[in-house]
Amino acid sequence: SGDYYNQGEIRKKELEQSCFLLGIPASDVTVIDHRDLPDNPAAEWDTQLLATFVLKHIEANNINLVVTFDAGGVSGHANHISLYAALRYKYWCLEILILFLCLGCHVLVLESVNLFRKYISILDVPISCLLPRDALFILTEEETEQAKRAMRCHRSQLLWFRHIYLLFSRYMVVNSLRLL
Predict the structure, then answer these.
(1) Rounded to an integer, what distance in angstroms lies between the CA atom of residue 69 and that of residue 175?
(2) pTM of the prediction?
(3) CA distance 97 to 93
(4) What is the sign of the dihedral through the CA atoms of 23, 73, 55 and 135?
(5) What is the pLDDT of residues 55-108, one digit of tens each?
(6) Which of 8, 14, 87 is CA-nearest to residue 40?
(7) Percent of the chain surpassing pLDDT 90
(8) Looking at the predicted structure, is the pLDDT value of residue 152 above 90?
(9) What is its EC number (predicted)?
(10) DSSP letter string over the chain?
């Protein structure tokens, strides 16, 4: 629930505001508040438990595409990396693999890039176009502004380095992904 600084309720509301700006109704957002899945940049979450929550959400909402972090978690955040591990878990567990195949659900993982590429914004487009990937999303100026507005809804998390992220991150403009 984003309660690392005891701001869980604030962050839930910020998430709903952000999703609303992106056209995602609050009814499609699931916030998990579980003692074994603490919001903590150093905590590795239980893969099987997290995979169970993710799978329930996929089934309940008839989701056919999941976009998540890769093994680097984009920022190295342990919780982000745990999400990747939980989705990879489906390949290790035959029961979950069969269910994913029956649901027709695919998983794309967002490519983590080095610090230089991460902060060259639109200048990363030619590099991303040349490198192998399964999907490449290049946002229009309007989409980038919408993404920035959505990010600004997370006021409790807008520390100085996230303002730099909003200005210079390639992830605000270009995202390269691979199928899991």
Answers:
(1) 11
(2) 0.88
(3) 6
(4) positive
(5) 888 888 888 899 999 999 999 999 999 999 998 876 566 666 666 666 778 889
(6) 8
(7) 68
(8) yes
(9) 3.5.1.89
(10) ---TTS-HHHHHHHHHHHHHHTT--GGG------TTS---TTPPPPHHHHHHHHHHHHHHTT--EEEEE-TTTTT--HHHHHHHHHHHHHHH-HHHHHHHHHHT-EEEEEPP--HHHHTSGGGGHHHHHHS--SEEEE--HHHHHHHHHHHHT-GGG--HHHHHHHHH-GGGTEEEEEE-
The stretch 129-154 carries a mean pLDDT of 97
Cα 129 from Cα 137, distance rounded (Å): 10
Place of tokens 């509301």: 13
What is the C-alpha separation between 128 and 133, in angstroms, rounded? 8
Average pLDDT, the chain: 91
